[in-house]
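testing teh design pipeline on a random one, pls ignore if ur not involved
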């Protein structure tokens, strides 16, 4: 059974250490039981034990604040560990001191960071593909609306119109002899 002093001690250790501090595996469950008991006592309305009830209510409020700060500090450390692990590839440090739910959070953050890094890498590799190439053409006959590869509409165009359109569409129009390339003229 966890006590107020145990909770305070856990926060104190977490506050003054850079490493994630070990906690019992069922720590959160025990804190939940502790808080539930304190809440039940603090909600009683017995005249004979009013001093105890007031003290318990204050302890209950302080316990919630301590628990929130403890979890916030642990989250910050886990985020920092995930960031370092993503950059260096080393992720086992302090992993043993994480609660089961914290390990899940850590793994999720790692997957997100790795996914983001992959996307950035792909964008850098395919940078040329990101920029659609256009071609300047002159229409040699009237053309209705065209739908580009990205789904946007182009046109309509009249004979003699000059347009700078995506290269793929321009090449189709050139093959079908519906337009001429401006560069060829």
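output:
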């Amino acid at each position: 059974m966890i006590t107020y002093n145990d909770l305070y001690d856990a926060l104190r250790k977490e506050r003054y250490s850079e490493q994630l501090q070990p906690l019992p595996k069922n720590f959160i469950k025990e804190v939940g039981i502790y808080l539930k008991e304190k809440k039940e006592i603090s909600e009683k309305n017995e005249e004979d034990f009013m001093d105890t009830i007031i003290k318990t209510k204050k302890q209950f409020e302080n316990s919630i604040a301590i628990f929130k700060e403890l979890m916030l500090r642990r989250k910050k450390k886990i985020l920092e560990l995930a960031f370092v692990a993503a950059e260096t590839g080393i992720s086992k440090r302090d992993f043993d001191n994480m609660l089961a739910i914290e390990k899940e959070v850590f793994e999720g953050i790692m997957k997100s960071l790795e996914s983001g890094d992959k996307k950035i890498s792909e964008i850098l590799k395919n940078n040329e593909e990101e920029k659609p190439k256009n071609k300047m053409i002159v229409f040699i006959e009237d053309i209705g609306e065209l739908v580009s590869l990205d789904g946007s509409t182009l046109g309509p165009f009249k004979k003699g119109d000059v347009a700078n359109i995506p290269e793929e569409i321009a090449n189709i129009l050139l093959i079908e002899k519906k337009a001429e390339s401006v560069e060829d003229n």
